[in-house]
Structure formats: structure tokens, C-alpha cells
Amino acid sequence: MYLCPMEFNGKLIVFSGPSGSGKTSIVKALLNDYPHLFGFSISATTRAKREGEVDGRDYYFISPEEFKKKIEQGEFIEWEEVYENMFYGTLKSEIHRLHQQNKHVLFDIDVEGGLNIKKIYGDKVLTIFVMPPSIEDLKNRLQKRKTESEESLQKRINKAQQEIEKSKYFDVIIVNDDLNAAIEKTKTVVMQFLNNDKSSN
Ligand code: 5GP
């Protein structure tokens, strides 16, 4: 079931950054514009489904008990308690699923998870940190999104600061002050990464 790093011959592109930074929109644009090239690693999570989200498309929404069982059975490549009592994890079976489809894997995961994927898969990974122009801007975006309660919004803002401090460990930082421009910049760096690798093989 699990492909060790040596067996996986695709590439892994990790997107991390504060909640509300726009990383999900950037990932969606890549998937939409290059459906044959990229597939999305659907994470498992214990958080509640938001309006508009679909189980098995955005996340595998599972109970804390199921999540714990998967940890015990070694089904995750990485997992984190991203917010208190909210668990998120990358399933080994996702890499396998996308490898079978001959696709490069896109991840939308937190900073710790992203850096862990880099540790495991090394040069096969490009880590991209999506940076909001400012914390104030981030707060406005999260408020506009209307997906979070006041408490959850505060948790996300608090975590953003810690995440931004770790952006220096990422291969690329994309400042998202204009979504379309950020998408174009991202496409350029991702294509460069894929092409560079071809020439070094
Ligand atoms: P949200 O609740 O906004 O969908 O996600 C909260 C945070 O969890 C985001 O930073 C998201 O990227 C991260 N996340 C989603 N899936 C995973 C995962 O599988 N592993 C880790 N470590 N973080 C994840």
C-alpha cells in the first residue's frame, strides 16, 4: 500500500501558509488548469464539514475515534493536531492513488506537515509558502469568508504568526496580494521545478 520515497517517481508540491492566505484557491487553480498533470492529496480530518465541502473531495471527514485508529494502524505519512482537538493527516494511500494515476501530488497542509513531507521525500518535493500581505489583510479575508466563529478566527490568526516565522524553511514564498498574479507566479515556479528535474535525470 505504502510507496517508499525511492518507489515514487512523481513529484510532490506542498502548499502551506496561514488559513485564509489563499493557498486553497491556488491549489484549485492548478488542479483545474492542469487536470492531467496534478492530483490533490485528500487529507483526513476530524473537523466539522463546512458548507459547500464534500466528503472525499475536500477532505475525508472522520471521527476522532477513526482518526486514532488510523494513527495506530500506521496509515498516515504525517498528521498534526493543527488546532486544539482538530486533527489533520496525510494518508499513505493518497500518494499511492495518485501515483497510480501518473500524477504529481499537490498538498494543502500546515507548515509542520509540509516540512515533514520534505524530510521524507527530499528532492522530489517543492515546498511553497503562501504569504498573506499582512495579518490585517488575513483577518479581513477570514471574516469575509464567513466560515469561522469568532473563537475559531482568533485561533487561526494566532497560529498565522507562528506559521509566518517558519516560512524561511520553505523553497519558495509566494506573496498573495493579488490572487491571479499569485497563481501565475506559482505556475511559473512549479513548471520550472518539474522541467529542471527532467533535465537532471
Ligand atoms: P482548514 O480547517 O482551514 O481546512 O485547515 C486548517 C489547516 O490544516 C490548514 O493550514 C491546512 O492546510 C491544514 N491541513 C489540511 N490537511 C492537512 C494534513 O493532512 N496534514 C497537516 N499537517 N495539515 C493539514
Q: How many discrete structural domains?
A: 1
Order of helices and strands: EHEEEHEEHEHEHHEH
> Strand portion, in percent?
15-25%
CATH class: Alpha Beta
What's the number of helices?
7
Regions with pLDDT < 50 over 5+ consecutive residues? Answer: none
Helix content: 40-55%
Strand order of the largest sheet: 2-7-1-8-9
The secondary-structure class comes to alpha/beta
Please describe the biggest sheet, giving its number of strands, its sense, and whether it closes into a barrel: 5 strands, parallel
The radius of gyration computed from the alpha-carbon positions, rounded to a whole number of angstroms, is 16 Å
Annotation, overall tally of beta strands: 9
CATH superfamily: P-loop containing nucleotide triphosphate hydrolases
Give the names of the bound compounds.
guanosine-5'-monophosphate
Q: Quote the CATH topology.
A: Rossmann fold
- Distance from N terminus to C terminus (CA atoms, Å) equals 26 Å
Overall mean pLDDT stands at 92
Q: Tell me the overall shape.
A: globular
Structural overview:
The protein is of the alpha/beta class and 201 residues long. It has one domain (10-196): P-loop containing nucleotide triphosphate hydrolases (Rossmann fold). The chain is built from seven helices and nine strands. Helix 1 packs across helix 7 and helix 5 (135-145) runs antiparallel to helix 6. The longest helix is centred in the last third of the chain and has 22 residues, at 179-200. The model has no long low-confidence stretch (mean pLDDT 92). The site of guanosine-5'-monophosphate (5GP) has 14 residues, from strand 5, strand 6 and helix 4.
